[in-house]
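Pasting as-is:
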Amino acid sequence: MLKNWSCILCLALLFLFLGTSCNREPPKNTAGQQPPIRLDRLQQLPPSPDHPGPQTLRVGVGAILSQQGTAQSYQLLIDTLGRRMGKPAILVQRKTYQELNDLLARDMVDIGFICTGAYIEGLHENTMSLLVVPQINGRTTYQSFIIVPAASGITRIDQLRGQTFAFTDPLSNTGYHYPLTLLQSMGQQPEDFFGRTIFTYSHDRSIAAVMDGIANGASIDSQVYEFTAKRNSLISQQTRIIHESKDFGIPPVVIPVSIDPEEREQLKQILLSLHLDPEGEKALAELGVDRFIEPDSRLYER
């Protein structure tokens, strides 16, 4: 059933741009507990070549959405960037946030659309820098939502004790780091509080896990949830938000620290001006983005 709902959600996410600092390691289970389930047996798209040549723009996109949804949503933007840079552009995808961070650290991609948590990790390791940030519905912030099945009767975080909970990725801000911090503020750890934890590796799969009854709760990127719920009424009918976090800096667009300064400036100016013409506006609309703007680094301070 999860696969069926994931397909439905991927179709709803065609117009979405989004995503989330996180601990490096996923929750560890104590003796006697069942280990975390990782939904990682899904078929990946063929990996893009790591060395396509200097005349290719390599665009890395984090797994905020499932790979099918990412490919569909970002293709127009990638094509537009390639035309304006004067060279072919390719999409580089990996299953986890850490894998894309590693590609950025090794200069295997030229530009990355990543989650907030992944950026903070890269910032601490001095492997990437901010380029621009998206503005969505006039905002450059987002939240973490804790959702549960609408019919469950759960209304508070403490009622999830002993239940199955869906995390997104170990580097996800809204999908892992925030709920971990929330539990710690309650004097709890995931391995002690939940009966079982799941890593879904995308926010749409986490929503699907709750809708299909695989998870009793999940921590979700607020913009993913709101966007999809507007386009698929079943999401709001079958799930319910029981907790909203404070605001966080929106998932940014980054570049490797070693990028050529001229290329950096060219990419930046292209993104900042996309909203000024019909082609750029269409690419932005596919992602649900108003425009790209100069970043405010203070939003990512920890």
